[in-house]
Amino acid sequence: xxxxxxxxxxxxxxxxxxxxxxxxxxxxxxxxxxxxxxxxxxxxxxxxxxxxxxxxxxxxxxxxxxxxxxxxxxxxxxxxxxxxxxxxxxxxxxxxxxxxxxxxxxxxxxxxxxxxxxxxxxxxxxxxxxxxxxxxxxxxxxxxxxxxxxxxxxxxxxxxxxxxxxxxxxxxxxxxxxxxxxxxxxxxxxxxxxxxxxxxxxxxxxxxxxxxxxxxxxxxxxxxxxxxxxxxxxxxxxxxxxxxxxxxxx
Length: 250
Known about the structure:
Number of domains: 1
Number of helices: 6
Order of helices and strands: HEEHHEEEHEEEEHHEEEEEE
Low-confidence stretches: 206-243
Radius of gyration: 17 Å
Distance between the termini: 31 Å
Strand content: 25-35%
Oligomer: single chain
CATH superfamily: Bira Bifunctional Protein, Domain 2
Largest sheet: 6 strands, mixed
Helix content: 25-40%
């Protein structure tokens, strides 16, 4: 479990290190304690916060301005949060495609559990019918990405009643556990997300461990010989603080 404030600081540091070439592309995977985050359009996001400060305090829910795109969302235990730290240059400099790729990661991962997820026209995220399974809110600075996606696994969906999720009134929220009707292990969901991230972004994990420039233990990935020789690619960080698995392009 990683506090939202600590995760933001870690991302800022890794973005700068990625820009300097000190670390490869990374995918940080973690869970947050109860927190509501607000996107860059603060007036709209704040208008979708339904709970009073007293209620939030009693429920132990923090509120943070995030600096990412999107509106308002909730993070908490049982939700797998992914923060890709990627250099999209030279061949992925397309924000729309990047968001669609993140959606595809979650849609494919849901399919691994027998859940038929998809897109809703005009909206972002992974949806099961009219219910959102996974949300997306990204930040891209000179083509280095941060923030990312939130995938509901065993999330207590009642906490979404504190907000208008993503400012969307026409749909609800769901989780893998609700959609499947059975318990889903976080480690199983994490493995599915990692594999599907590698598939969509053309990467491959390896079992070796190394150290990032941050001093954090990591599990690197290797490049497949089929394409893109020499360019380093995304990584996956295991849940909790600090562990990351750098990747290289296939």
